[in-house]
Write the structure tokens for this entry.
Amino acid sequence: MMNIFDKVISVISPEKALKRTLARKRIEMADRLLIGGAGYGSHGASYAKKSLIGWSVSGQDADDDIVANLPTLRDRSRDLYMGGGFAAGALKTIRTNVVGSGLMLSALPDAEFLNLTDDEAREWRKNVEREWNLFASDVNCDAERRQNFYQLQSLVLLSALMSGDVFVYMPIIKRAGVPYDLCIGLIEADRVCDPMPYPVGKNVWGGVELGPYGETVAYYVAKYHPGSTLPLNVKSPIQEWKRVLAFGKTTGRKNVLHIMCDVERPAQRRGVPLLAPVIEALKQLSRYTEAELMAAVISGMFTVFVKSNSPSTPLAPMFPAGMEVDKRDPNAYEMGNGAIVSLDEGEEIQTANPGRPNTAFDGFVMAICRQIGSAIEVPYELLIKHFTASYSAARASLLEAWKMFRMRREWMASGFCQPVYEEWLTEAVLKGRVKAPGFFDDPAIRAAWCKADWYGDAQGQLDPLKEANAAKVRVDEGFSTREREAAELTGMKFDEIHAARSREESMRREAGLVRDSQGQIVTNPNTQGGTDDE
């Protein structure tokens, strides 16, 4: 910070003011080096230790550290995804385990608060889930009419991981033959950006406008992607921005869902790509892999070089007429099978041996993958799909990964699935397709009707028998429920399993198939004395 005297000098001679400021900084640095410090000043914050002298950093707010660098981070993250196997594999692994075939709705109205009997709550759930599937399984729920709701989940997650965040809007579009008007539209992160001209007097950066308390007020959405060539081909190539309120003024409805990959700091208004901390490592690993691959290809070819003491002499007379010459490069020749080449005086043949494949390649790649996996919370065994350790080690890796997968699944459910479901249920109640007394009378009643769980694909089991026995113990001891264990082990709802089991056992009883005391199936229970142990 400059004092008053420095400010006066900066007006007269900015160059002299800059020199004074730099000199003051040098003096402060010298004092720190001589004096050292106490507490952290003697350790991590020390300027006296040789290992830390060259480590110069400055503290900035979240916008300076994140928003200012986002365009570069997004571009590099996408480039790694499109051209780097490890980056694409990491993002797709997270996408497949978190969303998979899609998070499924399990409507759970608060029956006690709503004064519903168990039968009434069960019937309401069945009707709501039937109506929801009518909406969610159709591509008409997509504003672009390309994907259904479960496929949109995959796109939302992948986009947020790759770009840092993604924006969702929910327009009302009437379409012929479609029972519901609610639609889901996605806005790529790049399109939410600072408008031109800049809105004077508003706290806008990264296309996000904040209010006096740091709350999100509005988003500025560009008509075209900033890097798109489409504006050059249309009649109105001028870029335009639309200011979209985050919440409705009168209803408080969420006009835009801002789904951020990770929130790292307070007052952070934009998300950071998942690969941001390991961009350099992934790029260097990709370059190293390409170089090793090229070296291995070259080593598979027998290449010779002519070492000449008279480089001005053309090489063509040295080779017989049967040798092929590359017309694009007159100095390149292809050796024929069993060719005998006579050389002039002073000429000799030298071969190139790249020494590939490199035996250290695999170990080095594994070491880097461990660091990358640690940063993005994906164990390297899962990152490279290579399980060679013991059962216990492999299971520990999967369990550690599933902590992150469940966290991401909950993040997807609360940030995307549940808000869309609440908007849909509101329309379903308004249209009379779903009965929900008091839905618009009290927010607490509305929340009770909207309560739901979201289940995804089950976690794979290394040893299904051990997993099933563990689930049985958890249910028997009251640590879990059949519904949750069924969802975790099979991805199915317990109601569906129970209904199917009931039908199967009824069919077995009607056919006279029961089990005896040893658990063996018999066809005549009257003669065998068996009992039904359903």
Notes: The mean pLDDT is 82.
